[in-house]
Sequence to fold (682 residues):
Amino acid sequence: MTDTGLQLDQLDVLANDAFAGRVVRKDLVRQVKVGANVPVYVLEFLLGKYCASDDPLSIEAGLTVVNQTLKDNFIRPDESELAKARAKQTGEFRLIDKVDVRLLASEDKFWAHLQNFNDRFIHIPENLVYKYDRLLQGGAWCQIDLLYNAADDEAQKRPFYIRGLKPIQVAAFDLEEFIDKRRGFSRDAWLDLVMRTIGLEPEQFDLRGKLLAVCRLIPMAERNFNLIELGPWGTGKSFVYRESNPNAILISGGKVTVAQLFINMSTGRVGLLGTWDIVAFDEVAGLQMSDSTVVNMLKDYMESGSFARGKEEVPAEASVVLVGNTSRPHAELVREAHLFADLPSSMIDPAFLDRLHYYLPGWEVPKLETRLFTGHFGFVSDYFAEALRQVRKQSFVRAIDAEFALGPHLSARDEKAVRKTVSGLLKIIHPHGEWTRAELREYLEFALEGRRRVKEQLKKLAAHDYAKTAFSYIERDTGHESWIEVPEQPEDADAGRGTGAEAASGTDSAAQDESAAARETTQQLIEQGESKKVEFKQTGRVNLHTKQQDPVIEQMVVKAIAGFMNASGGTLLIGVSDSGEVTGIEADFKTLGQKQNTDGFALWLNGIIDNLLGPTAAANMTAGFDERPSGTVCRIDVVAGSGPAFVRRKKGEAELYVRLNNSTRLLNTAEALDYVQNRWRI
Fold:
């Protein structure tokens, strides 16, 4: 006999009283899930039908029915031939399986594919295809009535026919009743019930942990919400999109095409973004775009909520979710690269990333352990999924206006992101439209942090476009301004926030401080590799291919130093290859005439800096030498300049270089003007 005993707590009693038949024991789901490879919402569809009770005897009887139903109707892939034989024997067979449909143009006919039944040529009435168009877009789990009829006149026997099917989803939902029942719960009790609904025990989480978990649901409650979550494996990033919501589709890696996401021009059929409420991309690091058009169209869709293929604009409400694992600890990514480093190169486009409304820090989410799972009652997943789908029609984007104003550093896109995040949290936790000022403040600060995390990484990718990251909000009644931090951001990165006019300008006071890299040994810098603060050059003036002095190589050294001066400082190591191998500058010594040593190298370096950057630039750099067994390394520590450092060219021309991430970039005229105005307020 199954152990169905449970000591009900106050929340269990309250949930059963308010939502009788709409809640289910989550530990029962895990019990039945073992050996049944079906989504959670399919299991809960059955458990909610037969086990929606707090009576142990009723639960025991219901579990018997559920297990028998799964035994009789759900087939494993290795049982497909046995199921086909049973259908032939009885002439009719009921099963639970995932159904997807395709149009075979050469036959002018729709064919159904049953995933576990393992047959791709099953007859299906066209009216069912048109009634449930998601069958054409990735498929859906259904209860299916299958007939066996081997027609004698068929050249190729295809005897299986779908007589009827019923998608596994809630039959009816009353939003007003749902909202009215919500009023019987406190904020904390309701938040705990939501946590239990997604299978987690709230006692194991603090408020921040709960908000991070619930944040995964915002794309289900908020139309066109763009969320990214990157972090370690094993934290359940994709679970809620794959298992618990029939309105979401999860794409795991592979190649993505325009036809798949938007419109198939050959058939005119709308793709996933026009069909599903949530389109989630799992294992996003392995995602491949068929061509650049996919990213460009996705970028436009994430901004406008519509897409065009052909003559007409197609509006859609699907939220876009990107989830994946990080290849390195987040602290290392923050220090040496950026938090988008594990995305496909086609997605590391500032204009694309700027469309993301929230970056959920997956490294803060604990890896799933038995202690984190709840054994108490939560909503039947399908019922709660329908509730979230219904509240998508509401909007709380103006909810903060009565109490708070957003600070001057937030752009229009930042403000939109923050408002949508707050709106989504309110729909999930306060669908009845009632909350306190303190609760609203918590959600606002949470939303600002997630958007600022996006903006800080954009600042690393394109500092001249995304310089303003001092996010704040202002209390309307007192005028008090509060700034929002991101926990993983290095302390010196916020030094430019300041107050008053300084905050509005985005000035970085770290420009006056010694480079952080200068406080580390040369060996430490080599071991850490190139980053925003560190660059390697194998030689200072010798071309390794021609073995001759080369002015282009010399200019690359000057450009690297200028790039550090125009950003936030850094360290240039000459005599180190890109891979971190110390090769030394002895080849450079041979080109220095009579002083073929470190003194001669220092004289050459000071001369070229004076000539190409000007005499004042030398005040922002300190050169030294580290003699090692494999060669001599020249270390140049550079601090940020108090004004722009231009590299002089022939005919009076000058160029502005800026260190961005792991490379030094030349800005065009418009970019240089904008960068100088924002960086130094000139």
Notes: The two ends are 78 Å apart (CA to CA). The first helix runs from residue 10 to 18. Residues 221 and 577 are 51 Å apart (CA to CA).
